[in-house]
Amino acid sequence: MKTLDIDTLRATYKSHEKEALQDFFTFLRFQSVSTDPSYAPQVKECADWLVNYLREMKFHTELWPTAGYPTLFASRMEAGPDKPTLLIYNHYDVQPVDPIQDWVSPPFEPTIRNGEVYARGAQDNKGQCFTTLQALKILLKHYQKLPINIKLIIEGEEENGSTGIASLLKEKKEQLKADYLAIVDVGIQEKNSPSVTLGVRGIVTMDVELTGSKTDLHSGCHGGLAYNPLRALVELLAGLRDANGKIVIPGFYDDVIPLSDQERKQISLEFDAETYEADFGIKPTGGEKNLSLAERVWIRPALEINGVSGGYSGKGFKTVIPSHASAKVSCRIVPNQDPQKIGKLVAQYLESKAPEGISVRVHVHPGGGRAVRASPSSAVVKAFQQAFTEAFNKPCCCIFEGASIPIVTELAAASGSEVVLVGLGLPSDQIHAPNEHFGVDRLEKGAVIIARTIELLS
C-alpha cells in the first residue's frame, strides 16, 4: 500500500497551521503545575480539555484517577489485529515558573518571538505532546481510520515523580499492551542534527546524614578536639572517585555491560567539547578521564553530589563546629544495574568510612528507576530514523540520553513493547527555567515526523 510522503504530510499540516497554533496556545494557558497543590483545579481542567480534544478526533478516551492527578488514556484500534499497535507517551503537567521576575513575558500567556513560542511547557512537554496530537490530525484529514492502531497515555504527574501512573501500570496492563512504545519527551543535540534516542540512564537518590556532637560547638573552645561533621562529609564525598574520575565503591561497576562493536557502529558517539563549553560555561572534565565524553554521559554510570548543607551560611559570621552535616547524592545507572543494589552499595561504603566520633547514616529513597536501552535494529527505531531523515533531508543518527525518565522502564514492561525515545527539544529551550520556548517550525516538523512514522509502520 502506498503511504503518504513527507511533502504531503507537511502540506497538510500547513493547511491548518493557524488553527493548530490557536489550539496550542489554549493548551499552554492551563497552569498545570503538578508540584504545587494550589494549581490543582488548573491541572484537572487541562486534563479535561485534552479529553475533549481527543474525543473530537473520535478517540475512545478515559481519565484514570490516581491519588494525585489523572492519567489520560486514549485509543483508536480500528486498524485491526493484523496491524501493529503504537503506544505514545506524553505528559500535560509542567514545572513551576519561579523565578517569575526573570520571565520576559508572562509564563502562561504564550507569545511568539523570533519564531519561538515562549511559555511554561512550550517544550516540556506540552509542545512535544502537541506534535503527537497534530500528527494524528494530519492523518485523519486523509483517512477515516488510522493506518495502525494507536494508544496514547498522557500523564499529569511527570514533574512530580510519576507516582500516579506508576501505581496504575499493573492494573491497566491489558489496556496498555502494544507492539511499540514511543516516548515523545526528549530532544536532539542541535537544531539541524536529527537523532533518535535509544535509551536513558536510570536513577537512584539518597540523603547522607552525619552527626557529631550533641549540639553546635564553639570553634575556639573545641577546634582541634571535636571532629567536624562538615570536614568528615567533605572527606567522604571527595573520596568517592579516584584521580582518574572512576568511582571507587566496590561492586559499583560489576553489572555494567559494555557496548558491543555492532552497537558502536550503529550509534553516534560524537560529542563536541567546545560546543558544550560555549553552551554551559564549563569544560566537560568530569567523569572517567580515559573515556570519550559521549560514553561518560550516555553509556557509563555516574555519581553526583547534588547538595551539601551544614553549619552557618547566613550573613556575617558564626564560628561554630556544626553538630550535623548532610548531602544529597544521586547515581545515574545503566542497563543491567539495579537501583536498589547500587543504593545499598553506596550506603554501605559511606557508612563504613565514618571517622571515629562521627555517625554516618544514608537513607536511600525508595523507587528510583532502571535504565532502558532499545536495539538500533528495532522496527520502530528504523521507522523513526527514516522519518527524521526525510523531514531533515539528512541522515538521522542514534544517540543516548544521560538523564532519566523512571516511568519508561515500567511502562515498557507493562505494555510489553519495544521502546524508542524521540522528540525535538534543544538544550537551549530553557525547560524548567524562565523563558522556556519551542520553535514553531519544530511543532510542524515533530507532527510530520510522527505522522510519517505511523505511515511507515503500517
Short description:
This protein has 458 residues and is an alpha+beta fold.
Write the layout of secondary structure elements.
Blueprint: H1 6-15, H2 17-29, H3 40-56, E1 60-64, E2 71-76, E3 85-91, E4 111-113, E5 116-118, H4 126-140, E6 149-155, H5 163-168, H6 173-176, E7 180-184, E8 195-200, E9 202-211, E10 217-218, H7 219-222, H8 229-238, H9 261-266, H10 273-280, H11 293-299, E11 302-310, E12 320-321, E13 324-333, H12 339-352, E14 359-364, E15 372-373, H13 379-392, E16 397-401, H14 407-415, E17 418-422, E18 437-439, H15 440-457
Helix pairs in contact: 1-15, 2-4, 4-15, 13-15
Strand content: 15-25%
Low-confidence stretches: none
Overall CATH architecture of the largest domain? 3-Layer(aba) Sandwich
Indicate the structural class: alpha+beta
Largest sheet: 6 strands, mixed
Gyration radius, to the nearest Å? 24 Å
Total domains = 2
Count of beta strands? 18
CATH superfamily of the largest domain: Zn peptidases
Please tell me the overall pLDDT.
95
User: Could you say what the CATH topology of the largest domain is called?
Assistant: Aminopeptidase
Give the count of helical stretches: 15
Key features?
single chain, 458 residues, alpha+beta, Aminopeptidase, Alpha-Beta Plaits, 2 domains, six-stranded mixed sheet, four-stranded antiparallel sheet, 15 helices, 18 strands, globular
